[in-house]
Structure of Protein-glutamate methylesterase/protein-glutamine glutaminase:
Amino acid sequence: MTLQPPCRVLIVDDSALVRQLLSEILARDPGIEVVGTAADPLLAREKIKRLNPDVLTLDVEMPRMDGLAFLENLMRLHPLPVVMVSSLTERGADTTLQALALGAVDFIAKPKLDVARGLESYADELCEKVRAAARSRVRAIGAHPGNRRLSAQSTVPAPTRFRTTDRLIAIGASAGGTEALRVVLEGMPADAPAIVITQHIPASFSRAFAERLDRHSAMSVREATDGEAILPGHAYLPPGGRHLRIIRDGARWRCRIDDSAPVNRHKPAVDVLFRSVALAAGANAIGAILTGMGDDGARGLLELKQAGAPTLVQDEATSVVWGMPGSAVRLGAAEEMLPLEQIASRLVTLSQS
């Protein structure tokens, strides 16, 4: 068996302490080689040319050029997998979501206090995300023709009429999912069946994420509250750090917000949502897994399929990371595999059947 060479990482952060800590954490992983560090984007630009790294870790707030401006230039001129290192603040959440929109693969949280202990607690996650980023697909800004077409269509939602109580759409995503979900929701009409979503995201980012999706969708996108009725034309995400389950209440469905333990190391977990939808909605549901790292959601999607629900996944070519969709395919949970730009229209078609 041929051993894969370690992925080569350049660390870009204005804090000498953070550069040192990230270097030490990543260097412990045999699958990662830290080839250099840079204190600001201008130094990073020179080191990228000289060192040709496979992955960049990038701080959001830096001197001489902020991380977003640097990222935009990088993704236009020299697309490279980037893992953002961002602060767990409201401003940090919004900036990080902007970075993901610009093409960053994923992000890790940088604690405001006790940085050394905080980063160490993220060590396994950091290494996993950097290795996944090295295998990810990045494109130059503007190289998403399907996304642009969906954006143009979404300004005037299709005048489709659904038997809205008949269908419930459940979607799970992780790495790359913040933008993939935006593309899907942009393509859904205002009167689409209700959509319930689990996206792996830190607790403090969830509200900003829901608000961002709401701005891009004809549907009403919101954080779910415990016990609220699920209505057509609405999309629901779990509030920060909680699982979202669906329960049946007579002829309708309701949200159940769950503070139980992580599943598959995630909270919220896609499997938790999908299993509850399989029980509550069965063949009236539609299940979809978008881009993401790991295998969360694969078993839940299989349970949806076994309950009679149509199931689909995003294809490898358009996924940033084909971990979750690929796991579902290998498990036999996915009936269809589609490029991202076709998923919204397929969900609409399945909803009408």
Notes: The chain has two domains: 7-134, 146-352. The chain is about 40% helix and 20% strand. The radius of gyration is 20 Å. Confidence is low (pLDDT under 50) at residues 143-165.
